[in-house]
Specification:
The complex is a heterodimer of chains A (288) and B (419).
Chain A: H1 2-28, H2 35-52, H3 57-83, H4 87-107, E1 124-127, E2 130-133, H5 134-156, H6 158-168, H7 170-175, H8 180-202, H9 211-227, H10 232-253, H11 258-272, H12 283-287
Antiparallel strand pairs in A: 1-2
Helix pairs in contact in A: 1-5, 1-8, 1-9, 1-10, 2-3, 2-4, 2-8, 2-9, 3-4, 3-8, 5-6, 5-8, 6-8, 9-10, 9-11, 10-11
Chain B: H1 2-25, E1 29-35, H2 40-58, E2 62-64, E3 67-69, E4 71-77, H3 87-99, E5 105-108, H4 113-126, E6 129-132, H5 140-147, H6 149-152, E7 155-157, H7 162-180, E8 184-190, H8 193-208, E9 212-219, H9 227-236, E10 240-245, H10 250-260, E11 265-270, H11 278-281, E12 290-292, H12 305-318, H13 327-344, H14 349-358, E13 361-363, E14 366-368, E15 391-395, E16 398-403
Parallel strand pairs in B: 1-4, 1-5, 5-6, 6-7, 8-9, 8-10, 10-11, 11-12
Antiparallel strand pairs in B: 2-3, 12-15, 13-14, 15-16
Helix pairs in contact in B: 2-13, 3-4, 7-8, 13-14
The chains are: A mainly alpha (288), B alpha/beta (419).
Chain lengths: 288, 419
Amino acid sequence: MYVLIYGLINSFILSLLSLGFALVYSIARLPNFAHGAIYVATGYVGWFLFNRLLLPFPVAMFLALLFSALTGALIYRIVLIKVRGMTLSEVIASYAIGIAILEILRWGGLRGMTFMLPVLIPGSVEILGVSIDYQRLIIVGLSAGLLLFLYLFTHHTKIGLSFRAIAQDERASLMLGIDSDKAALLSLSMGSAFCGLAALFILPLGNIVVEAGYSTLIFALAVCVVGGLGSTAGVVAASFILGFTQTLTEKLISSHFQMVVALLAIIGILILRPSGLFGKQKELEERV
Amino acid sequence: MKVIRKMWMIFILIAFLGVGYAQQKVKPIVIGAPLSTAFLYGWAPERAMKLAVEEINEEGGVNIGGEKRPLRLEVIDTRDLEPGVPVSEALLAVEKLILEKKVDFLVGGPVRSEAALASMDLVSKYGKIQIITTGCLTPLLHKRIEENYEKYKYTFRNTSHAGVMSQDFMTVMENLKNQYGLKKIMVMVQDVEHARKGGEIIAKMARERGFEVLDIKIYPTGTTDYSVGLNEAKNKGAQILFLWMDMPESAILLKQWAEMKVKALPMGFVCAAEQPGFYKATGGKGEYLIVHVVNGGNVPADITPWTMKFVKAYEKKWGLEPEGYGTSSSYMAVYQLKAAIEKAGTLETGKVIKALEELDLMGVYGRMRFDKRSHQIIPSHDPKEGAVPCIFQWQGERRVQVFPESVARGKILLPPWMR
């Protein structure tokens, strides 16, 4: 039973980690390699506001979230706008920004393992004989809620519809008067806010360390590669595949191979279907 | 009269300048410290060494044949604890200290065992003495010196190693078995060389001593969920969780353990739980965890009169208690070096090596002597006989030394759900 329950929980955690990255890529076609750095920076800002400036917890979390959205917007406005369309430059520029953010955090004092955010509700509950802490249940709810919000937002709001238009055909949407740069700016800001939200809910499970920036980026990339870059449905499917694969591997084979199996899944997908499960990027080439 | 006064003033000024110039001409003894400064095992040793250097310089410096020379510390970041950084980076850092910074001695790291082992050839090539004080726990280091003394005689280690630590753990487990009847062990270790080996040794030793080892779980670095392993431990009736991890994510494991109220006492080598701020940061989730910080003096204790003197001096300078493994040993290494240089009366490598081999100093964590053949610090549970280790337990906000009994400040407590 705990494989089922924790497989589900881990899948939702993975999807929450990756949603922001997938959103930015699907709309702006920008691979935001600063995703992991924004994740750690948001956690640290939240910690700083709560522990050092002693702001009330909800206020500190809200401001940290605002910080992540603003950081995303600034990264696009100042740097990525200049290299947009040149994939390699986008990757290099965003990765460099990510490293710079992480190293600034390290230099600024984020060293050691005692930086932790409090959980929303302490304690745990037994479900079908499996002990689960409340924070993980909240993450499941948040992740599901965010997916629903994203669906409603992209199908029933003007901005959301413009996002989808850009994602489907940028040139056609330009002809319809949709500002591509504005959409990209908003998508990066929104994707970063999603990433920040993930940080504020997932980081309380452990601690805030610079290294989490790299592992978060790897997880987000893994999910998006398996699911297909730019596909929200792909993110959900890939999160479930990887989440359950890791939990099952630990249960049936050994905890030692968790990461290996996940990486094998990525390699397998890249060989069999380079665009990922739901990706359409190279669909035509693949058919040929 | 005015002219005489002016001449006096000029004379005094010249005298002052002269003294200043003469002082400048006293060449300092340069200690190179290759450390992974972004990590606990890097910055805490750096702070400890700065404190020791400051104290020694305040006393006038190191006395070499009647001439007092100050110490100067040159710290370089080896980055060897950062993920993905190859050993060669750490070696380059050591080489830079030797060739560019012209250091006289090396104290501290490299921190990772692999890098420390590789650095032995380098210091041998340049004929520089190095005292390893942090990180490296592999018994291979002193075995290599013993097997090839002529080549590796330049390396010393004043900190304990995994072999001694395993014995310490077993003694504590035996006590737990006798006192509370805890005999089922689940081993959970990180997928890195020292942790895997540590886990294997503990499992083997535990089986030999009549414990039931339920399983050995190896977790890749970066694992963020331990629920399957903890549930298994719960279902199989584990009573001791033996951990060996230096990754930050081990904090997740401890939080999950506390949330799930697993009826197994966690103990081991857990880097994330060494720092004084750990209890507060986890909201008390890490309470009852038993941690090995290798050497005494890394938490407040009454080992020798110097122990609390060091703890208080560190606290005064850095605003917190000694932070974890590598702190007291790095502090002591500077004093060992000072004593050896003074004894040798020269900086000449061969003579200082001999002086270090013969050195017998009562330090922060007991009597400090190097084994003459392996250059490994001689361990003991009696501070009058050798270097004393430290195992502490988180009890409330305090790190209470519980082992060895001769210097313990408290007894091991069980969490409420295990009583």
